[in-house]
Amino acid sequence: MLEVIMKGGIVMYFILLISLIAVVIIIERLLYFRHIRVDEESLIRRLKATLEKGHHDEAMAICEQHPSPITNLMRVGIEYRNQPKQVIRDAILDAASLETPKLERSLSALGTISTLAPLLGLLGTVTGNIRAFGVLGQFGAVGDPGLLARGIAEALITTAAGIIVAIPAIIFYNYLVTKVNHIILRLENRVNELVLLLEGSAHAL
After folding, report:
1. Which of 32, 41, 47, 81 lies 20 to 30 Å (CA to CA) from residue 197?
2. Taking the domains of the chain in order of start, what are their residue ranges?
3. Is 66 left (phi over 0), alpha (psi -120 to 50) or beta?
4. Taking the complete model, does pTM exceed 0.70, yes or no?
């Protein structure tokens, strides 16, 4: 493996570096989404029952025990529970807008890596071929054709490496972006439900 990396030249080291960055981003994002995953329907029913009893501190504690975008919105709503309906709605919408950067963190970097990796591979191939044909020009037609073939083969290593890095990066980037879009859409659909829930609990008091 080390020999293959060395054959790819300095470009290969850059490809290896961005591949490690991509792996770190993918693992971190998967762990993050696993951490914020909750059963929203069950959680909202539980919060509704708690709020109807006027136990706002208990509702806040439930939100803190189950950190997720939806509970973050709920916490803000509970804090503004004594305000008019429009104020509560605006506060929840503001909180929802703050959740988006958290969900999208590092995804642009992963998208850049998925584009950059094959380009770096192509750059390594071009520079490698330049060196290989430079050797041919130095020794002329009487040179060893095998030397040229080995030079071209080594140059193509970076292209293969770039594609190998780009394929999983693209797959995970699209998967994570789709996941983020679904979460954001779900949050937007939950805003009215949360406002009505908080308004109902206020009337119950």
Report:
1. 32
2. 2-204
3. beta
4. yes
